[in-house]
Write a structure and sequence with these properties.
Blueprint: E1 5-14, E2 20-28, E3 31-37, H1 38-52, H2 69-86, H3 90-93, H4 96-109, E4 116-122, E5 128-134, H5 139-150, E6 160-167, E7 173-178, H6 185-191, E8 197-203, H7 218-233, H8 241-252, H9 256-263, E9 272-273, E10 277-279, E11 286-293, E12 296-302, E13 308-314, E14 318-325, H10 328-348, E15 365-370, E16 375-380
Helix pairs in contact: 7-9, 8-9
Length: about 375
């Protein structure tokens, strides 16, 4: 699936000889990722083409005469499309020529040299562990270092991820974004320019039943137990009074396995709650809180009279969505749910490996999310 690359800004600069060039500001998931010149991307494309041949998406052509404003905008759009499309192939994402270039431009953009550094990784229970890394280490590499320190086996790394998390007042926090494998966590933390921003370790799957895969690993169980307790405390997961009493008793006994088994029955267990926004349904200006997980999107809306109404979008009715600005974390969660569903169906029926999981006779919903104006709209086709 495509990654959320965009190039909303470009600037004209002068080189050392007085010539003009354009510097493109590339954003990933709503945050500045790097600044690059067309010539850098052109050389990178040539390197990729030598490895992967003609399977690459088309690259914007060179102009040998001065560009008009419309030509410059067209090139910017084409480069944006190129970056989105080149990330579709997982083999390309893992290649050295792909990763090494993106590491270099991240470091260059923020004037960070490769050196040894300490990085605090925050756990779901609020504690942090410190790891020694290189500033040029990717998310994938940092996750390996963290897993070694906490005793988590390499085979289970795919069930966890590193996130940028902002700590707020009264112990609350906001998950800003998931760091992708080729991002440099040290650089992303320096470049986020958000107060009280941290790199946090969290589980990264949206299907709560996948807990069962981790139950034979003490380190994995400890991590998902910490997150389950935190989610209950933050009211992201919503147990009934009876469930809460049983969970509190199990917590006092430190019976992590039984706690997690009971958590499976709790409403919104394993969901990721997004920051509040406003929506235009059923009335404009209503406050909404979105929770995503277990193949659904739950939208809890506060009406003008202070009553609440919950609207649920089932993922088997969602075929596509349009992200207009800054709702990238929601989109990442939707993509994760789709990939998990496809993996599960492929395991159950190998003949469905290359087919879409959506039944043809299902109602289709298009979800549009716009965080600038705070609107969430659903249109039925």
């Amino acid at each position: 699936m495509k990654m959320h690359f965009c190039i909303p800004v470009s600037q004209q600069r002068l080189d050392r000889l007085g010539g003009r060039y354009v510097l493109y500001s590339v954003y990933l998931d709503g945050y500045l990722f790097c600044r690059v010149r067309y010539s850098q991307l052109h050389r990178w494309n040539e390197q990729l083409r030598r490895v992967f041949g003609n399977c690459l998406p088309p690259f914007p052509p060179k102009y040998y005469l001065a560009m008009t404003a419309s030509m410059a905008n067209e090139r910017r759009d084409q480069l944006e499309q190129y970056l989105q499309n080149v990330t579709v192939d997982p083999n390309m994402l893992r290649s050295d020529v792909f990763v090494d270039f993106l590491k270099l431009v991240q470091l260059d953009t923020f004037s960070i040299t490769t050196k040894t550094a300490s990085l605090d990784i925050f756990l779901p229970d609020g504690r942090n562990i410190q790891v020694e890394i290189l500033t040029s280490d990717t998310t994938e590499r940092v996750l390996e270092v963290v897993s070694h320190k906490i005793g988590l086996c390499q085979e289970l790394l795919g069930y966890f991820g590193l996130f940028l998390i902002q700590c707020c007042k009264e112990g609350k926090f906001s998950v800003m974004k998931k760091l992708v494998d080729f991002e440099l966590p040290y650089v992303s933390l320096q470049s986020a320019k958000v107060e009280d921003c941290k790199v946090g370790l969290r589980k990264w799957y949206m299907d709560p039943s996948l807990d069962s895969v981790l139950m034979d690993s003490a380190a994995a169980v400890a991590l998902i137990y910490m997150q389950a307790v935190q989610d209950m405390e933050k009211e992201w997961a919503k147990p009934t009074q009876v469930q809460r009493q049983k969970l509190e008793a199990l917590q006092k006994e430190d019976n992590q396995t039984k706690f997690l088994e009971l958590s499976q029955e709790v409403r919104h267990y394993g969901f990721l709650q997004l920051d509040p926004c406003t929506c235009d349904y059923p009335e404009p200006g209503c406050r909404a809180v979105l929770s995503v997980g277990n193949n659904e999107i739950s939208c809890c809306i506060t009406l003008p009279g202070n009553q609440t109404q919950e609207i649920i979008f089932q993922m088997n009715r969602v075929k596509c969505w349009q992200v207009t600005f800054l709702a990238f974390l929601l989109s990442s969660c939707l993509k994760k749910m789709i990939s998990e569903k496809m993996v599960k169906l492929a395991a159950e029926n190998p003949e469905m490996k290359d087919s879409c999981f959506l039944p043809r006779n299902n109602k289709i919903e298009i979800i549009k999310v716009d965080c600038v104006f705070g609107t969430i709209m659903e249109e039925d086709l």
